[in-house]
Amino acid sequence: MKYLLLLSIMLSALYSTQLDNRLNSIINSDPYQLSQNSSERNIIRQLYSLNQNKPLWIGHARNLNTLREALQDPYFNYKSKDLQQNNIEQYTYLLNDNMDLNTNANDLATLDILLTRAYVGLANFIVQSDTNWDMVQDKIKALKESKDITANWEMVRKTSPSASRLFSAITSENIYDFFKSITALPKLHQDLIESLQFYKSLGSLPRIKYAKDLRFGDQYPYISDIKQRLIMTGDLRNRNNTSDIFDRELLNALRSYKDRFKLTQNNTIDKITVYYMNKPMSEHVQSILTNLDKLKVFPDKFPNEYIRVNLADFTMDYIRHGESILHMNAVVGRDVRPTPIFSSYMKYLVLNPTWNIPDNLVRRDLIPALQEHPDYLTEHNIHAFKGWKNKKEIKNFTVDKLLPYKDGGSIPYRFVQYPGDDNALGRVKFMFPNKYSVYLHDTDNKSLFSRRYRVYSSGCMRLEKPFELLEVLKSRLKASDVRNIDKYRNTLKTVTLNLTKPLPVHTTYFTVFRQNGLTNFRKDVYEYDKFIQTSQK
Length: 537
Known about the structure:
By secondary structure, this protein is α+β, with helices and mostly antiparallel strands. The chain has helices at residues 4-7, 17-29, 38-50, 61-72, 85-89, 105-128, 133-147, 163-171, 175-181, 186-202, 223-232, 248-260, 271-277, 281-294, 359-372, 376-379, 466-473, 479-489, 528-533; strands at residues 214-215, 268-269, 305-310, 315-320, 323-333, 343-351, 355-356, 382-386, 393-394, 413-417, 428-431, 440-441, 455-457, 461-463, 495-508, 512-515, 518-521. Strands 3-4-5-14-12-11-6-15 form an eight-stranded mixed barrel. A four-stranded antiparallel beta sheet has the order 7-10-8-9. A two-stranded antiparallel sheet has the order 1-2. Helix 2 packs across helix 6, helix 4 (61-72) packs across helix 6 (105-128) and helix 10 packs antiparallel against helix 14 (281-294).
């Protein structure tokens, strides 16, 4: 970096026949010197071709300085990857105000190529990260064979920036802004970068030795260690409070800490609390890095108004202009029946819905239930029909009719749970058509929302406050439908209400996120983070 001042006085119009000839020779006769990777080599050749095979960096101080700074900028290169920086530094002795472009043509040509490789490499890292996303998908698909788990993640796969776009940023001397423009989900990215820098700064912290469970009002020596740790993590704001007394400030800080790690809020410093506090900071850093990588396979931007379900946090948010105007708990698919990660559009909602039980749930759930409780259908207001078109109900249906289809085959029966307070979908469902047949809905089992890990569904997402969501959606319903909602709710008649404008819905899987200035960590319930961490290039 000490050469940057000298670079600032380089003449951008410097010209060297020997340097140009050397570049031409490498590009045309020794292209493997550009890169051993064929796709990278091709894009580098295209870049030089657009510049008439002349140097892209030597003689262009502003671009060169910007690139070198960007390579060291953790906002872009958050994994501190060596994208030719070490090789570049071996040639920086050439970069001075008295450099001889002809005498050093060979080395300067090599340096220009290294800088181009670094430029292309950083752009690719910003767009795709260094994760082998094909390998991640293979691991997700392999769950079907290894564990009989059908998991789906519709990743938004992005291509490398084109040579013309890369070249345009060079010619306009706008490299930094170009890198910013190809950074996906910049607000979430910035949040995670701040979290990364914070947890890296904590370094290796001393272990806290657990002694006994402690509660408000207790006095014990290791309370001081707990307070010092919570001061460092930002949960305890009063940096002068390091006494050994479990006071009100510690209680509030403890609640903050437990909320960030989704620990049981029991107002107690217990073994679990100390266990989490003793987790190495490197583990948290890795989780943040994994979520930074994860941003690459979501849309570059979310819409101005949309619904986002974070499956790892078991919550739903209605987002408007980047802010959540409605937040609620959700129940998502259990680990063996994970809710898919995908995007769609909500187009209508159904009041007093019926539930057509899918074949896979008939096999997995209904057959065992009928074997144990022969009156299960009657007790749960479920009606059986022959096929999907026949409206004639089968009375006194018995489980023996289903046993031939227990292990496979097309089930010739249809099972429908009629509307009511005991309906598994509750009193309303929100529909965004998709090939997975999942949606947002009310539930007859409200107790699950108080659980720590809300992974109990077969893929659909149950909402804690569905009618609050309906209230927000009224702006997208016809005025006549809005006027009749209360009337519809007082009956058991199934009514479909179409949205006047489709609403984007995104299911996501963020195990790290910032909230109120602090970093939250969630359990990798579907093990997708593990797949990412073991699929690095």
